[in-house]
Model the fold of this input.
Amino acid sequence: RRDVLVLTPWLAPIVWEGTFSRDILNAQYLQKNLVTGVVTFAVEKYWIFIEGFMRSANKYFLAGHHVNFYLFTDNPEKISHLQMAPENHLFVIPVQNDSSWQDISTSRMDIISSYIQSQFQYEVDYLYCMDINVQLLAHIGVEIIDALVATISSWRATPEHESKAQESQAAIPEGQGDFHYTASFYGGSVAEVYKLTRACFEGLMEDRGNGIEAWWHHESHLNKYLLQHKPTRLLSPEYYWGTEL
Done:
């Protein structure tokens, strides 16, 4: 494709529809016998999105490949039976409800990194984090697989200077930054996702100790981390256009 940017200045590919052959990638991926994990959170009123997300992800996310879905929720009793594809497995993990959505945002990074250390690293090779309030509308395949993967925001492609949070650990100086990445869909190898989520949690906690809150909360910290640790693959805004409910 000549109508879009397909390579970053640090030579990481930017994946758009029409820039890859899914058949070739599927054949290569199957030979490796890999398992991919998906982490999502359904806390408080967000439990209402579980069925829509799971039905669409079961159908469209790495279809035909082994996927473990890890659903963290404070309402496990409200989850009805969901019929999963033979190669997919759903694990419902109870979590405690936090007092505010900012606390949920902070604890999410801690929970992911803690479970990687205690469980996920033994069960999956790659791990992707997705928001629950979406429905997948088309196939998302093995073209997303790489060491550290970020999705360019569908509504703001360039980094935003955080003028109100200059002392935040997430602050990006004006004129710096590559793209604005959404915290709604990111991932990579288990080891890389562990480093990302741990660093974001530590930054969030340091800000909290200093009485500071980054403009976009954990998304700001994710963007600061990815500025300093360049993603090895970027997903175009196509991967998150028109999916949020």
Strands lie at 14-15, 36-42, 67-73, 88-94, 126-130, 148-152, 181-189, 233-235.
